[in-house]
Structures are given as C-alpha cells and as structure tokens.
Amino acid sequence: MISALSTFPDRFRLDGRTALVTGSARGLGWEMAKGLAEAGARVLLHGRSPERLAPRLAELQAAGHGAGALVFEMSDRAAMAAALAGAGAIDILIHNVGERDRRPINEIEPEAFARLIDVDLVAAHALVRLVMPGMIERRWGRLILVTSIVASLASPGSASYTAAKGGLAALTRALATELGATGITANAISPGFFATETNLPLAASPAGERQRERCPAKRWAEPWEIAGAAVFLASPAASYVNGHTLIVDGGVSASYLA
Ligand SMILES: NC(=O)c1ccc[n+]([C@@H]2O[C@H](COP(=O)([O-])OP(=O)(O)OC[C@H]3O[C@@H](n4cnc5c(N)ncnc54)[C@H](OP(=O)(O)O)[C@@H]3O)[C@@H](O)[C@H]2O)c1
Q1: Theoretical Cys-Cys bridge with 19: which of 92, 117, 128, 202, CB 3.0 to 4.6 Å?
Q2: Residue 236 placed within a domain
Q3: Can you tell me the distance from the alpha carbon of 217 to that of 123, in angstroms, rounded to the nearest whole number?
Q4: How many angstroms does the Cα of residue 102 sit away from the middle of ligand 1?
Q5: What range defines the domain where residue 132 resides?
Q6: Predicted pLDDT at 124
Q7: For ligand 1, is residue 250 a contact (CB within 6 Å)?
Q8: Residue 45: inside a domain, yes or no?
C-alpha cells in the first residue's frame, strides 16, 4: 500500500486497483483506460458494442495488463446495474460517455434534450450509486467525471450538451462535499479541443481552424494528452485533491483572446 514513505513515482502507481472507464472503445476514454492500465490498474473497458471493444481488450491483454469489458447502453439502467453487479470491486470510476447534439436550441426537441441529459448527467449519478457502497466499505475510491470547457464557457449550437456538462461539474462538487469523509475523492476533467476520431471532421473544418487559432497553444490536442490528468486524479498522489476540475485545454479557458 502506498504511504507517505513511498518514493515519489510510486505515488502515481495504481497497482491493485480496478478502474471502470465508460465510453472507452475509442477517443479520450480509450486513452485514459490505456494510461490507467500502464500505471498498473486492472481496467474495465466499456461501450455498446462487443465487436468494437474486442480489439481494445486484446491490445491491453497482449501488453500484459489486467483487463475486462462491460457492455451496456448508458440509458438502460437495468443493463448498467446487471453489468456492474458482475464486475467485482471498482475502485476508480471515470464517467467519460458524453453524447453531443450540435443543433440550435429551437431544433432540439424536449425529448432529445431530456435524453441527452439522461445519458450525460443522470447516468453519472446512477453509476456513482452503484460503485459508491464498495468504495465506502474499503475507505478508498476515486470518482472522476469528464465534463468539458463548455461547462463554464458556452458556444452556440450545443445547449443540451452544455447544460449536461455544467450539471456534471456541479455534481462533482456535490459528491466531493458529501463523500469527503469516506475516503472517496470526486473530481472532474475538463477537456478542450481534442482531435479524437469523432472530432476529426470538425477539426478539419473552418470552425475547427477557428478553434485552433482561439487556443493559446495554437493546436488541437492529441487524444493521448488527456491520460496524464486521469492517472493523476486516480492516483495516491492526488489523495487530497477533492472537488477540483482539472482543465486540459491548452489554455483556451484561461484566455480572453489568444
Ligand atoms: N473530444 C473532445 O474534444 C472533447 C472535448 C470536451 C469534452 N469531451 C468529452 O470527453 C468525452 C469523450 O469524448 P470523445 O470525443 O472521446 O467521445 P467519442 O469518441 O464519441 O467516444 C464515445 C465513447 O462513448 C461510448 N458511448 C457513446 N454513447 C454511449 C451510450 N449512450 N451508451 C454507452 N456508451 C456510449 C462509445 O461507445 P460505442 O463504441 O458503443 O459507440 C465510445 O466508446 C465525452 O464526455 C465528451 O463530452 C471531449
């Protein structure tokens, strides 16, 4: 077990811990899952498709990492509960699934708004309720919610997504406050512009070029650049970091004009 006497790099190790990363068949979820596995955690990947998860799982296992996969649609709470019931102890939860709806406000039907809030925000609460009792029992847990810079900076064409991410940021503070005495920390990661597979068309568009210019680093992030934040917040090194949002955006949200 890590203690104050451990050498400094050891405090970033996750040996003996199991982490569930939702939405880890690709994109930022996959990069965070790989980072946690390389830091020593047993990783449970998650997505909706066993076929899409299989090569990722094989890659982790071929590298010698402990790994498994859970398959469920985030809006199906019975499937979620069944999957987690068979998953064993989970020490680290990264809730990374985040659907987007880039339509203008008047085109988003109330049902579509509610569905997105359910998948991006309400599901986080459902997952936390499932993993929390074991964490409290073991007096150790890490809850990490993936928000976005839109949680505090809005742009046109993302109303439901913006509302969901703002809610996740607030939920992070509520979890940190309520669970602080239990050995659990709750933090958020707020990514800026990452050139994930899903975002490649946007990154190559005129809007994507404007975002590149808007960023003080003058580039989109590579997907792997999210992993360090996840490993840090999950690690013993972050034992007193609670209720924090770690922004990983190349300076976008620090700048008025870049
Ligand atoms: N990329 C960025 O620049 C950026 C910026 C700010 C915030 N973020 C946030 O970071 C997170 C990851 O972004 P990303 O771009 O890496 O996402 P992505 O490439 O779209 O990856 C989505 C992952 O989530 C799973 N998923 C999506 N909807 C699901 C649902 N309803 N139920 C179960 N699984 C579902 C997908 O699984 P399947 O294989 O089943 O499709 C896939 O593994 C999101 O929360 C996003 O809001 C990203």
Answers
A1: 92
A2: yes
A3: 33
A4: 14
A5: 8-247
A6: 98
A7: no
A8: yes
Kindly state the percentage of the chain with pLDDT values over 90: 95
Q: Is the pLDDT of residue 226 over 90?
A: yes
pLDDT bin (cut points 50, 70, 90) of residue 173 is: very high
Q: Which residues are catalytic?
A: 161
Residue 257 lies in a domain: no
Task: Looking at the CA of residue 149, tell me the nearest atom of ligand 1.
Answer: 6
Cβ(98) to ligand 1 under 6 A?
yes
State in Å: Cα 241 to ligand 1 middle.
Answer: 25
- What is the average pLDDT across 196-222? 95
Ligand 1 centroid from CA 256, angstroms = 28
Quick one: average pLDDT of 29-36? 98
- Report how many domains make up the chain: 1
Q: What's the order of all strands across the beta sheet hosting 184-191?
A: 67-71, 42-47, 18-21, 92-95, 141-146, 184-191, 245-248
CATH of the domain at 40: 3.40.50.720
